Amino acid sequence: MTAVETPRPARELAVGRPLAVVLGLLTVFGPISMDLYLPVLPALTAELRSTTSVAQLTITACLLGLAIGQVVAGPLSDRLGRRKPLLIGVVAYTVTSVLCALSPTIEALILARFVQGLAGAVGIVIAQAAGRDVYSGGKLLRYYGRLTVLGGLAAIIGPVIGGQLAAVTDWRGVFLFLAAIGVAILLASLLIFRETLPADRRIAGGLAHTLRDFRRLLADRVFVGAVLITGFTYAAIFAYLSGATYILQGVYGLSPQGYSFAFGLNSLGFMVFGFIAGRLSERWSERGTLTVGLIMTGAGALGLLATALLHLPLMAIVLSLFTMVSGAAVTSPPATSLALKDYPDIAGTASSLLGLARFAFGGFAAPLVGIGGATNAVPFGLVATASAAAALLCLGLVGKR
After folding, report:
1. Would you kindly state where each structural domain of the chain is located, as residue ranges?
2. Mean pLDDT to the nearest integer, 16-41
3. What is the pTM assigned to this prediction?
4. Domain 2-398, what fold?
5. Residue 306 burial (C-beta neighbours within 10 Å; 0-12, 13-18, 19+)
6. Mind listing the pLDDT tens digit for each residue in 169-211?
7. How many CB atoms lie within 10 A of CB 345?
């Protein structure tokens, strides 16, 4: 163990702040792909002559792509290194963003979004795995806290920019803007990102070896618990991403710009509480911080259900959303650390399962929100409450190994 850990501080000093910034930028693939076009989703639905549930499949397709892509990219990065898969993924993301903008039908857009998710998954999984390559201990917890903060910042910027873009362009222009973001991240990766996984630390072997690594991870009760908690928590988050734009605009009458600022408030909570959770987990307890986050998530979800059933005013749903989203942010750093910290040798593979749960659970939850139609918030509240309750039930799995 000492032989593996000894060189890490030197490597961390060598990469410095520029690499840390690029690793942070890679985390925007997920939130920016989802959030930027949410304010124009109703307009997209109308222009392509689709229904609410079918249009929400563009979200589901992207989420499933993000989930499946991580399962492929994670193990590959353990064998081939981090840099080459990353560059291929960013190029593919940029190209598929253009294809999304050119989609003539809702079916073509759903397919393009799935491929866009596959490509975007590479950046997400490598940001987590490369962070594990160069950080450990308290610095690793702080790093995952920063990833949560940057994810929240992207979630703030995404819908705000999307709302403003809606005033000057249509949904196709929004996807072209995503392509431009891909180009910017590609340039940053080319100029700054250097390999974080030396050849002597890479995993040899093919599919059989990868399957053995998966079995090793799934035999660990704490790892499985952290993955399930992450998955169920993000199911509530992606139900929010899928449904809030219809509820806040259709039921409460907010404009795309008004929705973007309401969304930004919740994302600010995600960012602030994610930062606090990273520090709190290091100084107090990972499991204690995780418990607090799950209680907050459950309280917010119950507030959403009560708001839907009792037809409470706008302030009630905004406060409930803020509590639920902030609680999810509190769970993210400790859950990620619990899942990855004991697997430095297969960090990419472990990250891929964590990402699979995060986006697959979210992908299945997202379309359920629209079952009752664009103006019915009850399915939204039910999905969020069920997801939070399932995450709480998994808390017992993350006791000490």
Report:
1. 2-398
2. 76
3. 0.75
4. Growth Hormone; Chain: A; (1.20.1250)
5. middle
6. 888 998 998 999 899 889 988 988 888 888 877 877 677 778 8
7. 15
